Amino acid sequence: MASTTSLIRLDHPATDTRLLRDAFSCFPSGVVALGSVIDGAPVGMVASTFACVSLAPPLVSVCIQRVSTTWAKLKHARRIGVSCLSAAQGEACRQLAAKTGDRFAGLDWSQTEAGAVLLDGATALFDCRLYREIPAGDHEIILLEVSAIRMHPEREPLVFHGSTFRAFEARDSAAA
């Protein structure tokens, strides 16, 4: 099949934040929980902008709104746990994203010696420290340096797409 090149005009300006948010939701992403014990209590939040950044040094990133009062607390923690949520953790994700209430009520979690909070049942767990914050519009790009990991690849990940949680569909590799 021959390829052709033609000019295309996109439908909407990127200044329409509602449409931009809808366009971003066309790309599926995993969901992570960030957490640490601060002043004796777990503090946590969720992010759907998790990405692997570097192997040497081992870095991951999340993007967090500058107005986040939870991140304002977490960024001072000695260690921050990152839990890649599993498909079974949709309700836990909603709870951790709530603006009010005890985000950890009824959730099973553990902490490292340095205070990183990790959710039981996640697909992968990372013990991290803050490496760098980079201003980016109305968000901060947060780089976290990974010091230890645990993984459970047999667990299906929680996927966020089209403003809702979805499940992967297994495909036969011969049919792909």
TrEMBL record:
GO terms for molecular function: FMN binding; riboflavin reductase (NADPH) activity. InterPro entries: Flavin_Rdtase-like_dom, NADH-dep_flavin_reductase, Split_barrel_FMN-bd. Coiled coil: none annotated. Residues 24-167 form the Flavin reductase like domain. Keywords: Oxidoreductase. Pfam families: Flavin_Reduct (PF01613). The keyword Cytoplasm does not apply. Belongs to the non-flavoprotein flavin reductase family. This is Flavin reductase. It comes from Bosea caraganae.
